[in-house]
């Protein structure tokens, strides 16, 4: 009888333990319908002036999120261009339990330029809102609540032109006697470790090797050959290479250590030429002006793009902010038929430019 009682007692303890564990796994359902954060701004429209770079351009404030219990909240400012539905917005982490943020003129202008290509091109509407992340109720805990958001404000902004200092990898090789004295570089337009740019190599150069450096000296990180598609930051790595003299398009990714080098010749293509996208007008490189040039008769009003090597692997189009860029899908408009001088300048990556002048 005693053994039966002992077994019954052990079974009862086990059942209580299991029940307790199951109760521990129960997650509470939190009502977020009362979390209502209202965003206010110091201005309803902005005109940014370079001379006011250090002055506050926009002050934002909002009320604390109320979860009906004590919890830390991380607030993040999101800025987007109108029409993008906040896809890939610019984000600034404001801080924990902080309910205001000031943007000075230079910072806001830089954000708009670097993220959306907006610079000195008239008025654009931007949208701003606050993202809320509830950090959990205990120190070190994380929240299971999805991000919440404040209301959204739309603000028209006029920006000023600015020269952005893009991250660069400097190119050195026999073409410049392994020096860093010239302006041979590729740049990371999105500040993301992806670099691209062009290098002119005169026909007198017969050694087609090079290395990349993150500074204009030999004291920092250099990138050399690992394989035909990968590079190495090891000091003993061999030289990268291109196939011959000419206008070389170089890419490098310092995150996954990939690289490429392609000798290019440039063409104009588009339905403005003859109504098709299959006729290629060759351009000629002028080393004295560092530009590609052609003069041609366009038979139609229509559009154009710039194309390398008569193939759609490397091409230039217009971004949504009308900036010329590699792989951009927008076409260059030609309003009327006629004879045009077309110029393409690729020497200052990623600030590529073009002109189309009627003759």
Automatic annotation (TrEMBL):
It comes from the Bacteria. Residues 266-348 form the Outer membrane protein SusF/SusE-like C-terminal domain. Residues 183-263 form the DUF5111 domain. CDD domains: CBM_SusE-F_like_u1 (cd12967). Residues 24-129 form the SusE outer membrane protein domain. Pfam families: DUF5111, SusE, SusF_SusE. This is Uncharacterized protein. It comes from Rhizosphaericola mali.
């Amino acid at each position: 009888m005693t053994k039966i009682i002992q077994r019954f007692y052990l079974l009862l303890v086990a059942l209580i333990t299991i029940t307790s564990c199951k109760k521990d796994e129960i997650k509470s359902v939190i009502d977020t319908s009362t979390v209502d954060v209202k965003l206010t701004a110091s201005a309803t429209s902005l005109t940014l002036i370079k001379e006011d770079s250090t002055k506050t351009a926009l002050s934002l404030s909002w009320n604390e999120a109320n979860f009906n219990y004590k919890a830390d909240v991380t607030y993040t400012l999101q800025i987007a261009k109108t029409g993008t539905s906040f896809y890939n917005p610019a984000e600034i982490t404001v801080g924990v339990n902080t309910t205001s943020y000031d943007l000075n003129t230079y910072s806001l202008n830089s954000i708009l330029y670097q993220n959306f290509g907006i610079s000195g091109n008239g008025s654009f509407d931007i949208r701003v809102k606050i993202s809320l992340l509830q950090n959990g109720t205990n120190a070190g805990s994380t929240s299971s609540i999805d991000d919440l958001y404040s209301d959204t404000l739309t603000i028209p902004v006029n920006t000023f032109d600015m020269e952005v200092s893009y991250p660069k990898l400097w190119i050195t090789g026999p073409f410049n006697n392994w020096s860093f004295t010239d302006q041979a570089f590729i740049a990371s337009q999105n500040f993301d470790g992806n670099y691209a740019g062009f290098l002119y190599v005169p026909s007198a150069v017969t050694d087609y090797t090079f290395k990349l450096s993150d500074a204009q000296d030999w004291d920092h990180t250099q990138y050399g050959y690992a394989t035909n598609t990968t590079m190495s930051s090891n000091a003993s790595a061999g030289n990268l290479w291109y196939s011959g003299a000419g206008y070389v398009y170089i890419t490098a990714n310092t995150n996954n250590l990939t690289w490429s080098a392609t000798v290019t010749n440039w063409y104009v293509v588009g339905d403005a030429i003859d109504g098709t996208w299959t006729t290629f007008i060759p351009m000629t490189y002028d080393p004295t002006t560092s530009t590609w040039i052609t003069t041609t008769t366009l038979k139609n009003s229509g559009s154009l793009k710039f194309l390398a090597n008569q193939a759609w692997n490397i091409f230039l189009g217009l971004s949504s902010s009308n900036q010329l860029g590699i792989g951009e899908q927008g076409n260059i408009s030609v309003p009327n038929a006629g004879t045009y001088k077309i110029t393409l300048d690729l020497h200052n990556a990623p600030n590529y430019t073009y002109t189309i002048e009627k003759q």
